[in-house]
UniProtKB/TrEMBL annotation:
InterPro entries: DoxX, DoxX-like_oxidoreductase
Residues annotated as transmembrane: 5-26, 64-90
Segments of this protein annotated with the region Disordered: 144-164
Record-linked PANTHER family: INNER MEMBRANE PROTEIN YPHA-RELATED, OXIDOREDUCTASE CATD-RELATED
Ribonucleoprotein among keywords: no
Descriptive protein name: Membrane protein YphA (DoxX/SURF4 family)
Family in the record: Belongs to the DoxX family.
Source species of the chain: Nonomuraea africana
Alphabetized UniProt keyword annotations: Cell membrane, Membrane, Transmembrane, Transmembrane helix
Topological type in the membrane: Multi-pass membrane protein
Amino acid sequence: MKRVLFDLAALVARVVVGLIFIAHGVQKWQNGYDATAQGFTQGGVPQPRLAAAFTMVAEPVGGFLLVIGLFVPIAALALVVVMAGAFLFVHVDNGIFLADRGWELVGTLGAANLVLAATGGGRFGVDGIYKGVLGRRARRRAEDQAAARAPIDVSQQHRELSSP
């Protein structure tokens, strides 16, 4: 029961957080690279053009990967980097509250991604399904190898052959 609860919680977290990142990434694409880089410059982000390029890829691609549950730890870590930059360079001096351009949203999204990076996305995603299939194959292979190495009971085979 505990495992199913984790898998459901991970699914909900991945989908909700992923959709938020997709939305923010699409918004940046709609604004354009130059406008996004300019916003990063105004926010005091170092290397704003590089940061804008990274963010414009990490947010929608990472968000999509979270939603489908593929490469969850890697996608989540990339999004942690984006949120750490937003926290340190844009929001930290504004306090907590979003209404004051504070860090509550980037903190929450960063923390959620840190948990997903550490725990994975659960069984209800591409990674989980793939691991389940590989696990079943490995168990089957181990059982087959164990059966092949098992000693043969010659007396039992003799009885079976000689009985009418």
